[in-house]
Amino acid sequence: YAPWCPACQQIELTWESFAKESEHLDITVGKVDVTQEPGLSGRFFVTTLPTIYHANDGVFRRYRGSRTLEDLQGYVLERKWEAVEPVAGWKSPSSIMMHGMAGLFHLSGWIRQIHSYLTGTLGIHVWISYALFILATLLIGLFLGL
């Protein structure tokens, strides 16, 4: 979820109720703010918000059903998740591919922080910051090419 997301705000009370019922369902319910954990949004290939996953024994399934408390509970109690196709191996959050994707999301966050530091804290003009990133990209490419 993300705090600015209207759909996430709409499901928030239902999700909290679902989390309170989790002990009776013998499950663990959690939520992750993708603005604070960009690597996880990359690892889970989050393209829409909110995104709900069911994980059991290292197998991940994306929940696409209704977002009412009854339907969420039924998904677990009636084991409806067994009929859902697991996330493909290469797209699984535990795969090497998704570890790399998470790394790219972390890198983009790091680059954004550097840009904000250069333009906000140091007062460098935005275009000069862009020029520095272009120069750094070219130099890294040259270095790796050698």
Q: What can you see in these coordinates?
A:
The protein is mainly α. It has two domains: 86 residues, Glutaredoxin (3-Layer(aba) Sandwich); 50 residues, no CATH class. 55% of the residues lie in helices and 7% in strands. The chain has a two-stranded antiparallel sheet with strand order 1-2. The longest helix is centred in the last third of the chain and has 26 residues.
What does the secondary structure layout of this molecule look like, with pairings?
Elements: H1 6-20, H2 22-25, H3 38-43, E1 52-56, E2 59-63, H4 69-77, H5 96-121, H6 126-145
Antiparallel strand pairs: 1-2
Keywords: Disulfide bond, Electron transport, Endoplasmic reticulum, Membrane, Redox-active center, Signal, Transmembrane, Transmembrane helix, Transport
Domain Thioredoxin: 1-76
Subcellular location: Endoplasmic reticulum membrane
Outline, from the CA principal axes?
A: elongated
SSE string = HHHEEHHH
Largest sheet, spatial ordering of strands: 1-2
Task: State the helix count.
Answer: 6
Number of domains: 2
Record keyword descriptors for this entry.
6 helices, mainly alpha, single chain, elongated, two-stranded antiparallel ribbon, 146 residues, Glutaredoxin, electron transport, 2 strands
